[in-house]
């Protein structure tokens, strides 16, 4: 996802805290979308 890519860029820059926050946000979005995706299938 876009957030995952952003996290990878931050990690390359050495922004570990920023990358961690972005990956946590990405994880929340994934967790939110999973049940919806299952329901539509």
Summed up, what is this model?
The protein has helices at 2-13, 16-40. With 41 residues, it is mainly alpha-helical.
Describe the structure in your own words.
α1 runs antiparallel to α2. Helices cover 90% and strands 0% of the residues. It has one domain (2-40). 5% of the residues are buried. The mean pLDDT is 81. It is elongated. The chain has 41 residues and is mainly alpha-helical.
Name its key features.
mainly alpha, 41 residues
Distance between the termini: 20 Å
Helix content: over 70%
- Give the biggest sheet: none
Structural class designation: mainly alpha
Oligomer state of the chains in this structure = single chain
Over the alpha carbons, how many angstroms does the gyration radius reach? 12 Å
Number of helices: 2
Series of H and E elements: HH
**Number of DSSP strand runs:** 0
Strand content: under 5%
Shape type: elongated
Q: What's the domain count?
A: 1
Uncertain stretches of 5 or more adjacent residues: none
Please, what is the average pLDDT?
81
